[in-house]
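Quick one, tokens below:
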């Protein structure tokens, strides 16, 4: 089966033949997630790598007081995996939860590892993917708390303009470190209609 989004993404990192791209796509299993469903959960070892075809996920955890904290969001055309858990086979400390309905191409660890034995220089592609993922993670992490809430919200709008109207206010408020009521006030300053979720 052909997955143009995945193929185009991989071609950013290396030239693949059409046959290689088709074979990679054929190894994926398509899975759909309802909003609120988990791709990965704390306490479990990551055994799958996903490519987000459609939808938005958030990476989150619970603090010592039981508050639900959103660290960052992952949208279309990105891989989703807890790298630390996957690479070191350690239980994850975070959750990856679908914020919207989502379609994901799933690769098992065994399938992913098989690419290294069948595709020349796959290890270089994997290295580039990991580097990109780490850089993206840093870019997407919740903005510095020492900035004021309005500045953090402006930063979010600048970095992720397409996400603002796709995610619940409660998750966005958690991401920028304010209450939902405070976020609603900030949004009113920008002339945005508050949404109830």
């Amino acid at each position: 089966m052909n997955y143009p989004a995945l193929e185009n993404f991989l071609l950013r990192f290396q030239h693949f033949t059409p046959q290689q791209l088709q074979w990679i796509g054929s190894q994926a299993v398509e899975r759909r997630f309802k909003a609120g469903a988990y791709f990965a959960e704390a306490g479990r070892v990551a055994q799958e790598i996903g490519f987000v075809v459609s939808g938005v996920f958030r990476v989150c955890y619970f603090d010592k007081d039981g508050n639900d904290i959103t660290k960052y969001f992952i949208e279309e055309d990105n891989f989703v995996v807890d790298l630390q858990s996957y690479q070191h086979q350690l239980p994850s400390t975070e959750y990856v939860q679908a914020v919207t309905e989502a379609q994901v191409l799933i690769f098992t660890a065994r399938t992913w590892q098989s690419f290294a034995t069948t595709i020349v220089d796959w290890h270089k592609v994997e290295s580039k993917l990991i580097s990109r993922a780490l850089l993206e993670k840093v870019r997407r992490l919740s903005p510095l708390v020492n900035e004021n809430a309005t500045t953090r919200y402006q930063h979010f709008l600048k970095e992720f303009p397409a996400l603002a109207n796709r995610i619940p206010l409660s998750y966005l408020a958690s991401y920028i470190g304010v209450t939902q009521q405070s976020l609603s006030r900030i949004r009113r300053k920008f002339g945005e209609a508050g949404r109830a979720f």
